[in-house]
Every structure is written in structure tokens, then in C-alpha cells.
Amino acid sequence: MKSTFARTRGLLVPVLALIALSSALAPLAKADGGPPPPLDWKPCAQGPDDADGKALDQAGARCAELTVPLDHSRPGGRKIKLALSRLPATDRAHRVGTLVLNSGGPGEPTLAMPLETRAAMKDVAARYDIIGLDPRFVGRSTPLDCGWPIGMWLRSAGATRARFDHQVAVQRDLAGRCARRHADVLPYINTRDTARDIDLVRRALGERRISYLGYSYGAYLGAVYTQMFPGRTDRVALDSAGDPDKWGPRALQGTEDEADRALRGWAAWAAERHSTYGLGATRARVLATVNTIVAAAAHRPLRVGPYEVDDQAVPYILSTGSGNDRPASRAEFASTVRTLNEAAHGRPADPGPELDGLLTFVLTPSGSPLASPSVAITCGDRAAPRDSETYWDDIQRSRARHPLFGPLKQNIWPCAFWPNPPREHPTRVGNASPALIVSATGDPATTYEGSKAMHRALTGSRLLTLRNTIAHGIYGEYGNPCVDAKVNAYLATGALPTANPTC
Q1: What's the pTM?
Q2: pLDDT digits (tens, 9 = 90+) for 298-341
Q3: Looking at the domain assignment, is residue 472 inside a domain?
Q4: Which CATH number does the domain housing residue 483 bear?
């Protein structure tokens, strides 16, 4: 599950839906009648400070709004607006069709994504209309903001029961703030309703079938769409896909091993560059530096520029930063750890622009517009345990093997206090839709085992494996020519490999 900061993708999961309501909504997955609603394509920029809109306009894209029902079982009721962009095919004579994108999160805006996707697709992009769609309550699509005093809700439980009890209070407060502001719409923020929106977009575009590219949570959304609307997809690429049966408020359970391996891999890299970063000349000494930072933050929050970073935020920063083994990513993370180490020793610590952006998102209200829909979607898809003791027991069991990341991955979320249960059962993915699933063996967020589970659920799929790599988000992002070429070949021809390929 993607986080909503810096395209890190993947953090961002007993009461289920009412059977009667599920039955009432089921026909919507089959019906395709009625004229498509009109789309009025206009320039994308919404003012002089709208960098994404101006970039889309300069690239030749146009934007539109589509009106859809808040509640798809009541099409004549309250409406919401969806924002979408279209980067049109330039090779109309060889046009394949429409490619709909989702960046993941859940809750990441996708409106500007066609620009980077076009670059990744190279010559193939000329044959597609590429669609960026902000999902409901995300970005420009009737945006949701719970007014949270912090951005990222994902925190470690900390070292003691008192610290965990503090987290329980924080997460309860976050859920309560969302309920007070948005109780009327929270029941309709979920993956199944987003999939229904996508099908209305398909109709509005006049397409019998659409192609689809989704990352992390976006891969799950794409799989749900194939399940709810069979026969309406052409070419489907699912990057960094998790196990569809495990998506929900506790999706991070079981990813501790991958997180530990990613951190150890980075520590070995940093040890070889001790002269540059000063974090330790061996992997063990670098990891000891990390432990010193965590212990110092537990004793007293670290002062990093204007921010106070405690031991409940530090593990999230460490997990996010160590999750990509590209040299540039590792160097950036090493600079982050060096800054935290300075703060741990009471020395002045300037966060620099990258760490400053992360801390602003994690620790201040400016992250609330991104984090709020992420939580709302997750809580709207699957119910979470309501008893805080369930989480504490899981934390304690995990802590022995994973003292740093166990209390992070097992911790309580706002979903434990969400005001309404999901309206429907989670979608059980299991069909023969053709799809190309892309996964790295060292993915620390939606693990390689999760991608293999998605491959088993989509029996018509192929699994493209990037071996010996730590990364989340591969195609067009990691920079592996083999992966990019194989995905582009599939998008160009529609022919899946005859076997599961590796790179």
C-alpha cells in the first residue's frame, strides 16, 4: 500500500457489508445502459500557481469533470465531481485505445500522472489516450480533508505500554475529527465505489473497453475493477501488487522481514561510504547508529530544524527511506539518517529540502489533505479490530523478532475507531482477466509474496519479476530497462509473455 508522500506507495488496511445492500448494488456491475454523460474538455491549469495544470496544458492535455452519484445504488441522489485529464494519442491511425491510470496510495492524486507515464511508454504512448483520474475525494475530485493536526497517521507504538496508549488516543482523535467533518460521505469512500466511477468514466469516454495501469493500491483497484466489470478491460498492468485478500487496515502485517532486510541492505551500503556519511564503518555499526537515534528519540523528541521527531515517528521515516536500493535513494536516506544522528547527539540539525518536505507531511496539518482520503478508503474497504488489546498483543509478539518495525507494522490505526462499518464485503478477486503483474523480490511494502498471490488470483495473468532488487514502484520509476521494455511490449501488442519472465 503506497504512502501519500514522495510516491513511496504502499503504506498506505468483523463487521462487513449488509447483504441486502450488496445485492442491490451488484446489478450495477452488469448494466451498461443509458447515454454516456458529456465531457467538456478545457485547459487544466487553475491559476498561476498550478504547476501540474500548467505542465499538462504545455504537453497538450486537457481536463474535464464528470458528475457521478455519491451512492451508486441511488443514481438520482446526491452527486460528486471527478476530475480527469486526457493526453491524447498522436498516432491516431494506430490508436490502441484509452489507458486509465492510478498512482496508488490509496489517495494519491493521479491527474498529472499521464506526463510521467507517457515518458515511460516511449513510442507506445503515441497510440493511447492516457487518462489521469483523481479518485473520488482525492485531489480535485470533491476533495476530503479531515482537518488533522498531523499528516501521516502511520506511527510506531513505541517502546512502552504508555507510548502505545498515547497512540490509541491519537488514532481515536483522528477518527473522531473525520467523523465530525464528513460523516455523511465516509460510507461512500471505498474501492468498490471508485471502481464504479471508473466504469462511468469508460462510458463517458465512449470506450467499450479500457486499458489500465496501476501501482500498489492502484494495482488492487485495477484487480477489483476486472472482478466487478468483467470483459471491460483490454491491457492491464499491475505494478507492485499486493495480496488482494489482505488489503485493508492491517495490510502491513507480515512485511517486517522485508523492512528489516531493506534497512540492513542500506546499512551495508552506508558502511562502505563511512567517509562520506560518518554513520559507521561496518553494517553493524551503522545499525547501532540507527538504534541510538531511536533510543534518543524515546528519551526526548529530536529537534530537527523547527520539528520535534519522537520515537513514534522515527521508525516510519526509517521504513520509508530504506525502501529503495537505487544509489540516489540510498544517498538521500543516508543524509536523512546523518541529520537525525546529529539531532540525537544534541547538535544543530538542518533537515534540508527533502527531509523538510517529509517532516512537514508527517508532523504538520499540511499533510492532512493527502492522508485523510488514504485512511478513509482503507477503513471503508475492510473493518478493523475495535479492541486496542488486539493490537497490543500483536505488537508484543512481533517486537521480539522485529524490535524496530514490529511496533510500526502492527500498530493501531484510525480504522479501529471509524464511525461506520464498510457498506459491502471486500471484493474477492478471482478471474481469468489477462494482466501483467510487475514485482521486485525485495519490495518492502506490497511484498513479492503478495504479488504472487495476485498472480494466482488472476489466472490469466503473467508475473514479471525484478530479482535482487529493493523497490516499490518499478515500471517507469526504478529505471530497469528490461522491465520497461517488457511492459511496453505488452502495451504495444496486447500479447502477454508465454511464461512468467524475469529481469
Answers
A1: 0.93
A2: 999 999 999 999 999 999 999 999 999 999 999 999 999 999 99
A3: yes
A4: 3.40.50.1820
